[in-house]
Structures are given as C-alpha cells and as structure tokens.
Amino acid sequence: MRGDFSRIRFNPAKNYTSVLEQQGRVALDADANEQRDIDTYLRSTETVDVIGEFGGPEGDDGFAISIVDGKLQFSAGRYYVNGLLCEATDDGDYDNQPFLIHPEYSAAQLLEMFVETQGSAPLRLWLEVWERLVTAREDSCLLEPALGQASETTARRQTVWRVVAELGKSTLLNSTCCDGMYRSRLQRIVPKMAAQTNPSSDTCGCDPVASSGYVGLENQLYRVEIHQEGDLASATFKWSRENGSVVASILSVQGADVSVDSLGPDSNLGFAPNQWVEISDDANLFGAEPNTPGALYQIKSIDVASRTLTMFTTVLPVDTTKNARVRRWDQSGTSASSNGIPLGGGAWVALENGIEVSFQTGTFRAGDSWVIPARAATGSIEWPPCGSDGQLYQFAHRTEIVRAPLACITLGTAVLSSTHLQQGGFQVTDCRKIFPPLTGLSVAKPAMHVTRTSWENDSLMSIDQLAANGLEVDLDVTPTSPLSAAVFVVTMENVPNYDQRPSQNPITIRQPLIIDGLVMSSGTSLLWQVSKNPQMLNYLNSLLTTESRLNAYARVRVRLLGNRIFGTSGSATVYLDGETFAIAATQADGTQRLDLQLPSGNNDAAADFESWFYLSAALVLKSVAPNYPAYSLLVSPNNAVTAVQAITTPGIPAQTVSPLIFITLSIAAPAGGATVNLSLAGNTQVAVLAASSVVVPAGASTAQVAINVKNNPGPTTLSFTVTAALSSLPNDPQTATFTITGAQPQIIIR
Predict the structure, then answer these.
(1) What does the alpha-carbon distance between residue 741 and residue 641 come to, in Å, rounded to a whole number?
(2) DSSP 8-state class, residue 452
(3) What are phi and psi for residue 153, nearest 5 degrees?
(4) Radius of gyration of the chain (CA)
(5) Could you say which of 59, 311, 404, 623 is the most buried, measured as most Cβ atoms within 10 Å of its Cβ?
(6) Residue pLDDT, tens place only, 136-185
(7) Cα(258)–Cα(324) distance, integer angstroms
(8) What CA–CA distance (Å, rounded) separates 234 from 366?
C-alpha cells in the first residue's frame, strides 16, 4: 500500500499474536501497523476456518441476483469472501455501483448479448473483492479540523467489493455452471526482484571512494512498482523513495496545466521541475480492469502562487469528481519515460544512492511491487527483508483480487422480444453458499439413507405397471431388521363415486385404503410387490376406472418408518434417516411436479421417508372405429377417385368426408404418450392407412389416422378390417371393419 510508512513488517510464519510496548521506548508506526496486520490475519483465518472461503449468513445473506425490468439487481445483506466481510446496506443495481466505474457493458447490453448467443453459454455473475488504502485524499472525514485541513494523521484499509458479469463458455458435460465457477483458476506466477547496494564511482581520484552501501542522508522506504505489464523484455517499472505517498488532489486540467490543492509541506515531500508524476482517478482503480495505472508525465515548471504543475506534454482529461490525483515518482535520467523504466533484461538497474535492482524472468502485472527499507544510520538496505526466506530474489506483493460466484443466468422458457427484456425469459441460478448460525447446526448422526426410488415422486403410474414392477427403494446400508407391510406402508387415497364431480367442485374428498404387499430385501434394496391375485387387481382397477370417469387419479403414499428399519454400519446399529426436501421438476408433458432430493437425511438418528405418486386404471385400448362404417367413391372420366362419400341413412344425400380411424384409450395417456400399432387387411390397391402407428399424446385419450383411398375398384363393395394394439400390450388387440363401394367408370365414346 502506497502510504507514508517507515516500513511494512508482518510475517505469519513467525506465529506472532500481539505486539507489546515497553516502557521508555520509541513508538513506531511499523509496530502499530504490524499489530493491525496480526489482528487481520487471525480474524480472516478464523473466518475462513469457520465459514469456508465463501459464505452468507442464513437470513441476512446478501448479493442474491435478480432481473427486474431488464436490470441486474442484487439484494442487501452480508457475504464473506476469503475472510473479508462484504456488506450491502441496501439493495443495489449493477449499473450504479461505487466501485464499478465505466464497465465495458451495461446490464441491458449484457443481457442482450447473452440472448443473441441463444443461451449457448451462461451469463455468470461474481462478487469481486480486494483491499485498498484510503487516505484523506479519498475521504476528507479523516482530517481533523482542529489540526488544520493540511494535517493528515491516520489512513484506513478498506474492503472493495463489486458485482461483475461475464459471458461464460459452454458448460461441460456432467457439470453445472455454478460448479464450473467454483473451479480454481490458473494463477500467473508472481515475479521476483532482487535489491543490493553498490558504491558510487569517483572519477576525481582525489577524494576518498564512498563507502559501500546506502549513501542517502535520510531513512527511506523505497517502492519499486511495475507500471506496464508484460515479460522481462516488455514490462516497465517506476519507483519512489517515499513509498509512492507524495500525492496531491487535482482541481482542474487545462492542456498541460494541472491545478492541485497542495504542492507539499516542503521540498522533500513536494513537487519539482523534471520530476515524473502519475495522473489518475477512480476510473483507474475501479474500471472494468481494476487497479490499472495512470499516465506518466514529466513536470516542466511549477507556479507556486497558483499551485499549478505544467507538464511537457498535454495531459489527458481526468474526472475531478472521482478523486483525481497526481502522484510523484522519483525516477530520472534518460531511461525514464512516459512508459516507465525498462526492466533491464535481468541486469542490475540503478535507482539512487547506491541502490540497484534486478528482475527475474516472469509475467509482470501492473501494480506488482516491492518495498526496500533504507537506513542512513547503518548505511544499508534491509534486503533480503527481515523474516523472509533469505533469498536474494523475493516475490512481489500483488493485490489479491478474489472472485466469489454469485449466480448463473440461462434462458428460460419465455422468449426475448426485440424491444425489451422479458423477466420470464431468464432463469437465475443462485450459486452462493449459505451457512446457518451456530445455534442452528446439528451434529451429524450415523444413519441409513434412501438413495433411489423406482418411481418418480408426484408423477403418474398405471395399475398394470405397479403390478408388473412393484416398488423398489435403494438404501446405503443393508437392512437387517424384520420387514413387513407394517414398516413399508402403501396407502391408496381414492376418490369415491359421489354425485358432485371434481370438475364441478374443486374440493375433492378422498378416502384412504391401505394396500398390503409382499415386502422383502435384496442387498441394500427394499422391494414391495402388490398381490397379483386377479380378484384383488380387478377390484383396484374398478376403483381406479371409476375415478377416471371423475377426471381424477388415486394418490398413493409410500411411507417407510425410520425408527423401525435398521441395519449395521461398522459396529453401530443405524436407523433410517429418511427425511427429504422437495425441489421443482418438470414432467415430460411440460407440467410441474415436486421431486425429492436424494439421498435422504437431515442429520437425524431416525426419520420417516415419505413419497407419493398417482395411480390410474390399467391403460387399455378401449376401441378402434372408422368415422363412418361405409364409404362410396366418386370418380373422374379417367377413373381417378375424386371424392369419398359417407353412406348414411337412405334417402339422405351423401356427404363428402375424409375417411378416418379413431383410436380411444380407457384413460388418458401417461407422460411420454402411448403408441398404438395399426394394420389394415383388405385390398391394398384400393385403400391403405396413412401410418402404421399413432401416438396418443400425454394427457389425451384419443387419436386418429387417415385412410388413404388410392383406386376405384369398380361397381363392387369391398370389406376392410383394421387391427389396433397398444405397443405395451400387443396381445390385446381391437378390430373394426368398414366397406368401400366403388363406382362404374364412365364410358367415353370418341
């Protein structure tokens, strides 16, 4: 951090927990700041150990993403990122964040670009977090009026957070968008730099050679900072003997003239001609790419009276309402330029007063920095830094910017209009991690859990499917308890045949009927099988058939008694923890249902498992019939069939029709529909079916297929037989017949 510090000293490897003052000793800023660093380290480490890298407190969690009227919004609340508390005191809008200035795209543009991709890749939102130093330049409240407005005392460390968005790549197979966001990203290796002192040469020959070491007259904290990112050949740096802390606020910029609020308290901590300065504002700190450097300019002259710095070149505009500032750097000579100083390709580069630096090959990022304490009393620099690994080349300090996943946005069922964004057109998946208070935590107990069921919760099944397959529940522990219908309870809640039908009255009365079945186990699976006694199945089917006429299905509830079903895990007896939580799901026909999250369990020693589905009568082919039993043909002079008429009541004129075969099921088809196979016996030169099978859609009980009449058989009547059978019940066909009477071809006399 570019503050006015004597030194920066903290090493977690030393396991220090506090700084203790001793009587009669000098108080140093470094000691007090080290205590703050110790406290911060202990607090953030404990927070991560308790919460994890990311987490929001249940009930007060913040940064939940929503889309309202085409705007990206986030909720008020708290969220912890890598031990740092991020708090939004009010609901926020993506386009109006104090720490997100001039984003590359607005929220509306992001959503529009996302829709243009047709949802091929999700729109991902992150909470981007880092820390920065705040002085009175950024917050005037830090000044004490009693000391005079020019008297600056302490600085502050601030947590910076902002919501950022990016269009992601297509999600991988077997991976969700949120899972992909939590994968660690490849981090660039932090580069290294070395520092040393080298005596200045003396060309006079008459004066004694300066002693080896640091030859400055003042204690300094040198800062070496990367200005232009790149590799060893392309990156550049800048340096300051005051840790980059000589700063003034910019009042206005006109051409090459920069008006500032102060020229510094003295010549050592002020500005002078030929010095290099960096000009920036908050857009550099909080732009789309955070913490970007400002532009470097060289001072040509200074007007003390008007507090104006005149540069050699025109200064690019800055926003004086966004903490525009000018910061002094101390490089000089021919190697210094508006691009910074070249790294020297690994060779030693002189700073001043005998200090030299050398950079190792690596990837350098703007803002990477090193600090070098230089002490006049000893004539030396503290390098390698005290408490380091003792190596000549040391890693740079790099501001750590952490991204916490917030949400993934995908396209929903609704579409986007060309003029505005529809709320229903997007689906927001919450990627945050929420933690309960300590009082809400429960200790996990060893238990048995349900991992799978052979049926889908809240879905439809027919009685013939239930009789054929039974019910299967898979566990993660082999049950050793006795099993019976007393612990595997199946109850059918059927609708009685009363006068007022459900279609006329939304309130339906149901009465329970417990169905005992044979219960057995096979390994970790529980099996329930209904009695296959024909009388029993016919009775149940009759009840269900009655309900189908009332537009209702029986509801079947399955309950496993958790404190009655047990097994052995290790040396302990464990009971069934069957409690489950519901999630929304979609049927094949598009209707909504409730599914269960498996495996079951809520850290209970024992809990019942409950599920339900709906039961229909056996799905059978009720009838197959033509729309008319007899047809007659009209032909053209060249004997081509021109129309098909229905033969109805004698004396009533015949009407032109489209011959059809109607298929009717006993009940509505289940999810996925029901396939009916068809065949036609008769003269295939005269008539055929348009298809050899037809699918009755889910929720429907009828379908139709056309009869294609191809040729005129002449003045005769032919009989045809159509046979239909469900593909699931091929041995239970239905048949129907119809006739086609041809016409006498006209005799054409030439």
Answers:
(1) 12
(2) E
(3) -110, -95
(4) 41
(5) 404
(6) 889 988 888 888 766 788 999 999 999 999 987 654 434 578 888 988 66
(7) 11
(8) 12
Asked if 396 contacts 193 with a C-beta cutoff of 8 angstroms, the reply is yes
Hey, is 657 helix, strand or coil? coil
Angle CA(486)–CA(488)–CA(490) in degrees, nearest 5?
Answer: 100
The predicted-structure confidence for 384-431, as pLDDT tens digits, reads as follows 998 888 999 999 999 999 999 999 998 864 444 433 344 457 889 999
Residue listed under structure tokens 């950022």: 164
Structure tokens at 349: 């580069």
Residue 119: both structure tokens together:
């949802």
- pLDDT for position 749: 62
Q: Is beta strand 434-435 parallel, antiparallel or unpaired with respect to 54-57?
A: parallel
Rounding to the nearest 10 degrees, give the CA dihedral for residues 45, 51, 52, 57: -130
Burial class of residue 72, CB neighbours in 10 A (0-12, 13-18, 19+): buried
Peptide bond into 290 cis (omega under 30): no
237 φ, ψ (degrees, to nearest 5): -135, 170
> Token digits for 376?
């006049």
Assigned token pair, 479: 């049950």
Q: What is the pLDDT of residues 41-57, one digit of tens each?
A: 999 999 999 999 999 99
Q: Are 595 and 565 in contact (CB under 8 A)?
A: no
Q: 198: Cβ–Cβ under 8 A, 6 or more apart, which residues?
A: 212, 348, 350, 354, 356
For the chain, the 3-state helix, strand and coil shares in percent, each to the nearest 5, are 10, 40, 50
Write the DSSP symbol of residue 577. B
Q: Exposed (0-12), middle (13-18) or buried (19+): which is 214, by Cβ within 10 Å?
A: buried
Question: Which residue shows structure tokens 């109607």?
Answer: 662
**Tokens 């304490």 sit on residue:** 373
Residue type, 333: G
